[in-house]
Amino acid sequence: MINLGRKEQIMILVIMAVILFSAGYQFAARSDKQPMELVTSQPGEDLESTQENQGVVVHVAGAVEKPGVYQLSVDSRVNDALKLAVPTADADLNLLNLAAPLKDGQKLQIPNLVEPTIQGQSPAQMPTVSVPVQGAAPVVNNPIVPSVTPGNGLININTASLAELDTLPGIGPALADRIIQHREANGPFQTIEDLKSVSGIGDKKFGDLQQRVTVQ
Q1: In the chain, what's the furthest Cα-to-Cα distance?
Q2: Residues 153/159/161/165 CA torsion (nearest 10 deg)
Q3: Are 159 and 146 in contact (CB under 8 A)?
Q4: Concatenated DSSP letters of 3-27
Q5: Each residue's pLDDT tens digit, 20-66
Q6: Are strands 56-62 and 107-110 parallel, antiparallel or unpaired?
Q7: Structural domains present in the chain
Q8: Using CA atoms, how far apart are residues 213 and 29, in angstroms rounded to an integer?
Q9: Is the Cα torsion angle 84, 89, 95, 99 positive or negative in sign?
Q10: Strand pairing report for 56-62 and 68-72
Q11: Under 8 Å CB-to-CB from 56, ≥6 apart: which residues?
Q12: What is the reported pLDDT for 59?
């Protein structure tokens, strides 16, 4: 065994410390030279991408063979939804804007065709004539025009009662009363667009009503 003096031991410790320090410095320098990759994302990118993938969801009801809820792309039109739901033979597509863009959560109520009438009157509206016995004068019975048009479920705004108007979307008792007062003061509505002349019915509210009402 080699006996070293105190001076030799100190020199050995100093050399070992220098070697250890040098090795640690070189390791740290190599670590600093390794590239770091920073991944960034723009706020809203994931949300926007998710929304585009989800598209729009609409409810198709009424005169279609396959009523139900459909999911379509964000740039879809009313006609695209009808291709999936398949309109029936008596669907009145002329009342719809087939080129209108779809909105998420929208309901498409497809109306039926109104049955042909004679001189603008349906059989329910035409007066009946009954002849009493013993040659009395004929009695003409004018039936009350129904407020709900048979076959399509549309409410006739010219004959509907306050309670029937109150069933329309966005129409409460007060607005239903104004509709009745308007037609009594100005005569029957000529078109459903005339509803917009009633105070409280703007373009938005009329858009919710136009597929639920009729003037015939």
Answers
A1: 156
A2: 50
A3: yes
A4: ---HHHHHHHHHHHHHHHHHHHHHH
A5: 887 776 776 665 555 544 444 454 445 455 555 578 999 999 999 99
A6: parallel
A7: 52-110 (3.10.560), 114-125+145-216 (1.10.150.320)
A8: 81
A9: positive
A10: antiparallel
A11: 71, 72, 73, 74, 76, 102, 103, 104, 105, 106
A12: 95
Please, which contacts does 87-93 make with residues 24 or more away whose CB atoms are closer than 8 Å? 87/63, 88/63, 88/64, 88/112, 90/63, 91/62, 91/63, 91/64, 92/63, 92/152
Report residue 151 as tokens. Answer: 């076959």
Q: Are 62 and 112 in contact (CB under 8 A)?
A: yes
Output the six-digit token pair for 45: 């990118």
Q: Which residues make Cβ contacts (< 8 Å) with residue 184, sequence separation at least 6?
A: none
In whole angstroms, give the CA distance from residue 107 to residue 96.
13
**Residue of 147, 182, 172, 174 whose CA lies nearest to 161:** 147
152 contacts 164 by C-beta, under 8 angstroms: no
Instruction: Quote the CA–CA distance of 40 and 9 in Å, as a whole number.
Output: 55
Q: Give pLDDT, residue 28.
A: 66
Query: Tokens 């001189």, residue?
Result: 119
The type of residue at 7 is K
